[in-house]
């Protein structure tokens, strides 16, 4: 196998689909290319690609031109041509079942109803253990058909939020390249909200760990750390 890494953003070709919910994978690829000075100008294996170095790794960025439902044709073509190990493959796609603003990275799993991922899994056969970034776009409102919803653009606050999530997705891909999928999952899964700090109980402090691995809580005695005038 090769030392190349293949990063694929899923979407539909054509101006009318450029900024739709279904094309968030393409937006992440475009931003990766911009930040790392790569040009998406090569047509090969039913994809538009760029090649270069990111985070010290040789990479190929790809935007399949097959339309979403046939993404597997393009991905399989690139995997075979460049002899890409599935450990070095990452896909980026929209996800209806995740709220807008949420990222979820996985190193294996099902397609989860995403037709582009479904096509890739079908074409890769037994080699399904590839990393993926799921970019939440939320469920359609009311009784709107999901097919119509994913082909709509983002408006208002949603458009601003998507720009923030694209930035987070780019950082997630960079972490995947530099540190692997497990650390990327730990650092970037979720909605970007920092974890809440644990509350501190007034009048208590934690003592150093004991040999048994337990931590004892000792009360703070007023005046213990100073004189009567400077407690």
Description:
By secondary structure, the protein is α/β, with parallel strands linked by helices. The protein has a single domain (5-188), classed as 3-Layer(aba) Sandwich (Rossmann fold), CATH 3.40.50. The protein has helices at 24-35, 71-82, 115-124, 146-149, 156-179, 181-188; strands spanning 5-9, 42-44, 47-54, 57-64, 89-95, 103-106, 131-136, 204-206, 217-219. The protein has a 7-stranded mixed β-sheet, sandwiched between helices. α1 packs across α5 (156-179). It is globular.
Provide the descriptors you would attach to this structure in a database record.
231 residues, Rossmann fold, seven-stranded mixed β-sheet, two-stranded antiparallel ribbon, 9 strands, globular, disordered C terminus
Concise summary:
This protein has helices spanning 24-35, 71-82, 115-124, 146-149, 156-179, 181-188; strands at residues 5-9, 42-44, 47-54, 57-64, 89-95, 103-106, 131-136, 204-206, 217-219.
CATH superfamily: Peptidyl-tRNA hydrolase
Distance between the termini: 67 Å
Amount of beta strand: 15-25%
Total strands:
9
> In terms of per-residue confidence, which ranges show pLDDT below 50 for 5 or more consecutive residues?
209-217, 219-231
How many domain units?
1
The string of secondary-structure elements, in order, is EHEEEHEEHEHHHEE
Give Rg in angstroms: 23 Å
* Mean pLDDT figure: 87
**Helix proportion range:** 25-40%
